[in-house]
């Protein structure tokens, strides 16, 4: 697979093309072809991403308190945010997927695409160094960090929903995982939010916390 277009899009030309291929290799493909997947690169990329985004927030937003910086980072270093980065650079066109994953539309799954971004970050680090990896991260997350920093004082959707529902007295609000879909390494959680046993909304996300926030957001509407 020719990765020239991808390299042009991300602004980095790999010296070791095999390293980039490994970063784009999903476990399903690795299992079928007996090659190494991108899981270990993803592991490292996650740490690099967290460190460099923390460094950027620390240096560029000195008025934010520690807790606020943590919130900004959490909002930006997440599946939804990395999925946007993957879409921007058309990562889906370059993924190596196994037959079963390809058939189940794995090329468009947010978790797979987000993981591939973290793996590519680690690959860039190994191929070009920390400075180049930092350039890629900031170029792609700078706007999201700026937006998050402006909204950091706003209440999350769970809090807003709770306050709205309790305007006329105490009520019992519950969040329940009603369905779990997918293999252990790629689970999707369906969370339902209810008020006094009355169903308000459900949402699917790749982690329970995100599902709860999403269902709360839907419940507010």
Distance between the termini: 45 Å
Gyration radius, rounded: 19 Å
Overall average residue pLDDT: 87
Spell out the helices and strands N to C. HHHHHHHHHHEEEH
Q: Which term fits the overall shape?
A: flat
Give an overview in words.
The chain has 221 residues and is mainly α. Helices cover 60% and strands 11% of the residues. It is built from 11 helices and 3 strands, in the order ααααααααααβββα. The protein has helices at residues 4-10, 17-23, 27-33, 39-60, 66-76, 79-88, 99-103, 110-128, 130-151, 157-165, 208-220; strands at 173-181, 188-195, 198-205. Strands 1-2-3 form a 3-stranded antiparallel beta sheet, covered by helices on one side. Helix 4 crosses helix 9. The radius of gyration is 19 Å and the shape is flat. It starts with a helix and ends with a helix. The mean pLDDT is 87.
Topology:
Elements: H1 4-10, H2 17-23, H3 27-33, H4 39-60, H5 66-76, H6 79-88, H7 99-103, H8 110-128, H9 130-151, H10 157-165, E1 173-181, E2 188-195, E3 198-205, H11 208-220
Antiparallel strand pairs: 1-2, 2-3
Helix pairs in contact: 2-8, 4-5, 4-8, 4-9, 5-9, 6-8, 8-9, 10-11
Feature tags:
single chain; 221 residues; mainly alpha; three-stranded antiparallel β-sheet; 11 helices; 60% helix
Please provide a brief summary of the model.
By secondary structure, the chain is mainly alpha-helical. 60% of the residues lie in helices and 11% in strands.
